[in-house]
Amino acid sequence: MPRVSDVLDALERTAPRHEAFAWDRIGLQVGDPKDEVNSILVSLDASIAAIRAALGSAQMIVSHHPLIWEPLARLNGSYSARRAVDLVRNGLALAVAHTNLDCARGGVNDALAQRLGLRNVRPVGEGASPRCLKLTLTVPVEATQSVLDAVSGAGGGEIGTYRRCAFWSAGSGTFQPMQGANPTLGSVGSIEVVAEDRLEVILPSARRHDVEEAVLRSHPYEVPAYDFHEVTVHSTPLARIGELGKPMEAVAFARLVGERLGGPILAYGCGPVRSVMVVGGAGGEYWRLAHEHGAALVTGEAKHHEGLEAADSGTNLIAAGHFATEQPGVEALSATLAERLPEIRVQAFQPEPGEGGRPH
User: Fold this and answer.
1) What are the boundaries of each domain within the chain?
2) How many CA atoms lie within 13 A of 309 on its CB side?
3) Which of 29, 151, 185, 284 gets the highest tally of CB atoms within 10 A of its CB?
4) Is the dihedral angle over the CA atoms 27, 30, 32, 36 positive or is it negative?
5) CB of 283 within 8 A of CB of 243?
6) What is the pLDDT of residues 100-132, one digit of tens each?
7) pLDDT digits (tens, 9 = 90+) for 176-212
8) Which residues contact 180 (CB under 8 A, 6 or more apart)?
9) Among candidates 241, 18, 244, 254, which has minimal Cα distance to 128?
10) CA distance 83 to 315
11) What 8-state DSSP symbol labels residue 142?
12) Where is 122: in which H helix or E strand?
């Protein structure tokens, strides 16, 4: 039977933790990694409506928005605390993929760009620039591939949509086994020189234990030589930018956004639209980045002064609603998890209008 930990592994491959911004609250918020799961509900929020929908049909909810932001002082006050209690009472686990899903390839903003029919979509702006680890180890040449396979299987060497990423260089290693050693190569007392590869692999800090175990399990030497050190790695930017099939007037483009996303919109600016930047959720401040790229901005929410400043700068800004701009990402996540977890039933939750964060 699959377990919560299997869902967490699939989430890590889909929206790696290192893509999340440092202030975010992601990962398992309620439940035990060892709990069994045969069905999960993927939802924008861990709302009362989502919890009701999961009862009797699922053992776990995967939500985009975190339920718990700060440590809870008590469990009978806020609505967040009450929902946490409901999850525990009903044996429901909760895992969160938030800004890591915003940034991830195929995540919220890629799904939004696809829903709007944008072409030549690419990431733009800044990402989380997380602190990760680099593993450096030496391994005899004939064992390089098998050790790399083990490290990759434990979560090392994933960069963006690529896995098993590594660099190795050839060299010579030397050692002298002393009394009590049980060397794989050579003999006690003899100085040995062996053709070795120096292998370097990036990994999330949270994967250090698993990767270290993989090294010790797969490395042929009795005492492998390896070390970890912190590095800052490039992460995928949050925003996406793409082009329309043909330029559109502002009113026509606003109408298109409303039709594609299925909800009321607020539109600022009146210039023609050729390229479009998308930021699901509350991304009104991204109008400046959109302006730098000569693009319109489609986001979920924008403050009045952001719409005013965007329009004054000649930048079109459309606020189409938090739910409308992020629900496509929820549906994309559900499809990806269904593909990666064939033994688990995965369903995307869409609340009724007026419930669960979905406006009328």
Assistant:
1) 4-100+325-348, 108-126+237-320, 131-232
2) 13
3) 151
4) negative
5) no
6) 999 999 999 999 999 999 999 999 998 887 778
7) 999 988 988 888 989 989 999 999 999 988 889 999 9
8) none
9) 18
10) 40
11) G
12) strand 119-124
The model carries a pTM of 0.79
Please say whether the structural domain 131-232 has been given the CATH code 3.30.70.120: yes
pLDDT digits (tens, 9 = 90+) for 232-276: 777 789 999 999 999 999 999 999 999 999 978 999 999 999 999
DSSP class of residue 56 equals T
Q: Which residue do the tokens 């370097």 mark?
A: 200
Q: Does the domain spanning 4-100+325-348 belong to CATH 3.40.1390.30?
A: yes
Is beta strand 226-232 parallel, antiparallel or unpaired with respect to 131-140? antiparallel
Residue with tokens 């930017």: 237
How many angstroms separate the CA atoms of 291 and 170, rounded? 48
DSSP code of residue 6: H
Q: Could you tell me the maximum CA-CA distance found in the chain, to the nearest angstrom?
A: 83
Find tokens 């946490």 and name the residue: 84
